Amino acid sequence: xxxxxxxxxxxxxELNGWGRDCAVAGxxxxxxxxxxxxxxxxKGRLAAAARAFPVIGVVVGGGAGAALMVAAALGLHPLACxxxxxxxxxxxxxxxxxxxxxxxxxxxxxxDSVEKKLGIMRDSRLGTFGVLAVVFxxxxxxxxxxxxxxxxxxxxxxxxxxALSRGLLPVTMHLLKPARKSGLGVRAGSPDQDGWVKAWxxxxxxxxLLLGPWGGLLALFGGVAAAGFVxxxxxxxxxxxxxxxxxxxxxAAEIAILIAAAAVI
Length: 265
Description:
Elements: H1 2-29, H2 45-48, H3 53-73, H4 78-93, H5 96-110, H6 114-122, H7 128-146, H8 151-167, H9 169-175, H10 184-188, H11 193-238, H12 243-264
């Protein structure tokens, strides 16, 4: 009986811990009304909740997939269904990742020094590079999803891409240092090894479950390559990562994962 009580307490503590981490991650990564967690705004709390990033990805991708399937049920063209699904995803996240992609594109494309690049990235105004980056991101993803045979498979690909791409972000938060002395990169903190490994493995597991062994493997390789390239580029260009860099990574990884999923499907 004593051992059973220990097991029950352990399971209860783990479930409560995961619930708190999902709420903290959801508060930062979406605009959904997650429960307010005391101390969620403290430095390092987001990094401590990094293992829950793929779970939030499932929520975002599930909402986008549902919107896509509703549009398909209304008889809309597959490309229109894909755009509606992506619009739903953007609404759920408040365009958080698209904004990061635009800022990184403007900063790296328009600055000739680290200080200027970071200054442009912090500027709320949108430049030509940023506009084109978002247009290409949305256009490529919509074209891929519109070509997938069937709204159900497209919705599955959306969920897998949303979960796996977010599961890769804690790796960058762990390996790279913040490029600024202030900002989200500093406030978020750095996940420990247990946190980023769990996020990475959970994202990969969701990908394998939804896309099958070959699809999951190809998606994992594609997502790692895309996210790794953005991390490498920003490390050499601005000396580390920012919140915008994580947004750009998510977008690049999602595109690569969708390409892999479409190739297998």
